[in-house]
Amino acid sequence: MSSPAHSIILGAGLMGRLLACELAGQGHQVSIFDAATSDGQGAAARVAAAMLAPLAESAITEPPVVKMGQHSLQRWPELLLKLERTVFFQRHGTLIVWHRQDAGEAARFKRELARTQSQIPSLPQAQTLDSAQLAKLEPALSNRFASGLFLPGEGQLDNRQLLQALLHQMQVLGVTMHWNSARQLKDFSAAQSQNGGWLFDCRGLGARPGWHALRGVRGEVIRLHAPEVSLERPVRLIHPRYPLYIAPKPDHVFVVGATEIESDDMSPASVRSTLELLSAAYTVHSGFAESRILEIATQIRPALPDNLPSIRRLGPRTLQINGLYRHGFLVAPALLDVVMQCVLTGDSALAGSFSLTIQDAAPTRSC
Asked: Domains of the chain, with CATH numbers?
């Protein structure tokens, strides 16, 4: 990195854009190629709530993701400060609620949190709330739930603002962008060997068939405009069949999700999924009955068999970053820092702290 080189990135989703800005900001010439358009329509990051909730996610994921999430919570403000455009970001914590009939499921959730906190003592302790404490914390939910949990320090950001801010930053930094330009790694192998730059594959499911273990997990998300609802932080509703999250964005826009279906199907959302999400949101706050549906969106998230992110080394200067699954915004800054350590030093001590192994798909000793 001591002298500029021409680096190529395949895939302009969240990971590709973050990496392009970081490389260009450190003096690299960067070209980025994406199969879709600049608005991120083909990216899983566009259809997301962008919640930064390592403790809440610990109930359904493994400690490495939780550790990456802790790191990313600290890194997001630093990354956002580098951008010329403002991106909505907050760390007001996460509120967990449930209806009386789901108290058993809530007890199971609490046990999962306790298990993770015993493994990762640096996580903040979940706080049990009675009805009065819940109402004080989130007045809009007063008298709606008998109890709840508060997970302090967790956050969220506006995913679409971020994608646009990263696009603008790439333009400012002189990144060469190629839209509607699907490419394969083999298209650049000769050029890379000549110019000495790096080649990064951040294409998600576009990396198939070269990464055979990749699979798609379908998610369905609804965006609502609800002027009658005011929430200060993301709210998660515990339910045995369709756990729900409601993430408040600026101007009374709410992202409600999300279903998880083992499928590559990109067709519109089903009536059943839509009804379940909307009815669950209504049980959290009746003001959602008069909200306006801005969008019902579907997208396929790239996942590996263990649902953990992975970095593969295909050659001395070729890396693949993939498998972000439903945790893209939670883990992306951590993965970015691991990749940049590889670029700068040839190795990454940070990867070990996340129990993240950089896999060798080709014989080489360095990143």
From this structure: 6-47+159-209+305-360 (3.50.50.60), 94-152+215-303 (3.30.9.10)
